[in-house]
Amino acid sequence: MPYSLDIARLIVHGSEDFFPFPFYMTDEYRQIFLKEVYNKLLYKPDYKQFIWDVTLSCLNECIEFIESELNDNSRERDEMFNYYYKNAHILSDIILRGKEIKY
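Given the sequence above, the corresponding structure tokens read:
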């Protein structure tokens, strides 16, 4: 779904703390954000499918940043890399379990 990548970018880059990013998004805000975006969609998929699409897009967003650092040998692995790497593992575990996500 085209909307899911835009949503994922905001969710993935909004950490629970101010570091490593200049803004943050708590889990509560993520849930509010997801529900509000879903409610404003003109054509709504099933809510579980909507969340699943966003979850897959979040993993994609993490992988893009991991790949960028891994392909650049001049860059040292830093907190940003660790942030995306940790989140990619969490998302991978969710995806491997299937659609058992709590909504």
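Residues 2-97 form one domain. Try to locate this feature in the token string yourself.
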